[in-house]
Design brief:
The chain is mainly β. It has one domain. 0% of the residues lie in helices and 53% in strands. The protein is globular.
């Protein structure tokens, strides 16, 4: 098991890779910690913090969630211009989902929190895939 503590960020650049840890050794992202930037997260992940390609204030980042499942009470977001998150493994939890950029849902996504969607956001859902979030709340009302 690998646990982040304190406050800080794991920032990927040009597809940094969080290794393919075995399921019995997940990465536990602690509160006040963030995974951000352009990175592929292959490890089993328990999110108690924030997963957001724009979490470091950069733009044009792609964060991919793949291989092992991702779970937890933490938040998931796509903030910032031109940022994208690709979900290619199941994700489940009780956190919120906030999208201002692009979200590609290629595997099931279940969250018990609230789904915030900005006016310029794009959400692409693959055929026969479930996107289930407890509540929907637009971030901006159309004029």
């Amino acid at each position: 098991m690998y646990v982040t503590t304190g406050s800080g960020k794991i920032i990927g650049t040009t597809f940094g890779l969080i290794p393919d840890l075995q399921l019995q050794n997940p990465l536990i992202l602690g509160p006040n910690n963030t995974i951000a930037g352009t990175v592929r997260v292959n490890a089993a992940l328990v999110n108690h913090g924030l997963v957001d390609p724009g979490g470091a204030g950069e733009t044009g980042c792609v964060l991919e969630l793949q291989c092992h499942p991702k779970i937890g009470a933490g938040n998931w977001a796509v903030t910032g211009t031109g940022n994208r998150m690709r979900i290619v493994t199941p994700v489940a939890g009780t956190g919120n989902l906030s999208v201002e950029g692009t979200l590609d849902v290629e595997r099931h996504l279940w969250l018990h929190g609230t789904f915030f969607m900005g006016s310029g956001a794009t959400v692409n859902i693959s055929k026969e895939v479930v996107l289930d979030v407890g509540q929907f709340q637009p971030m901006e009302c159309p004029e």
